[in-house]
Amino acid sequence: MTIFDWHSGPYPARVRIALAEKGLLPKVEFVSVNLWKGEHKQPAFLALNYSGTLPVLQLDDGTLIAECTAITQYLDVLDGNPTLTGKTPAEQGLIHMMTKRAEIELMDAVSVYFHHATPGLGPHVELYQNAEWGLRMRDKALRGMRYFDEVLKRRSYVAGDEFSMADIALLGGMIFAALVELPVPEECEAMHAWHARVSKRPSVRAWRAMVAQTH
């Protein structure tokens, strides 16, 4: 398998953490697509992924799978023992629901803030910016943090009692928020406690080690 991504990207982080959770990191070849140079918007990469987003998984037969959720779903069921996406229909539904909420309410909101209300990836990539929209999405991300704080007051993990793809999505949002210096409010104690706990997982430590090796 081949993964096209960028080592420190928050969306690629989600797939790298999932790979580590499944013990698949040694089986993957990583190909760097430089976000800061806009390589993900060039024709060569757009031929792989029409959306121009990272990461993309390429299987040995040439099949291409984009989108973090789709890639994680594929990786999770390879061994016949899904641990990240749910075993029962109810678990699967809840995990996918909370993963989507983590994307909409936090991760994607931070992304819009980054691309519109900060220098983003620079003038060669950010061809259009709407600062007002970016700031609205910053505020949405902060509301999302407070929403997930309430969720995590009631249960150990985002979608229930077990670590799942939804936790990885929320963690990706926090990785992105840290990159743009948008901290989780101090009063969100449950979310801070959850973050401290999941940061100790071997998969998250493996991802951080991979990022550190590239600097």
TrEMBL record:
Top-rank lineage group of the source organism: Bacteria
Gene3D superfamilies given in the database record: 1.20.1050.10, Glutaredoxin (3.40.30.10)
PANTHER family, sorted: GLUTATHIONE S-TRANSFERASE GSTA, GLUTATHIONE S-TRANSFERASE-RELATED
Domain GST N-terminal stretches: 1-83
Domain GST C-terminal: residue ranges: 88-215
Name by which UniProt lists this protein: Glutathione S-transferase
Xref: InterPro entries: Glutathione-S-Trfase_C-like, Glutathione-S-Trfase_C_sf, Glutathione_S-Trfase, Glutathione_S-Trfase_N, GST_C, Gtt2-like_C, Gtt2-like_N, Thioredoxin-like_sf
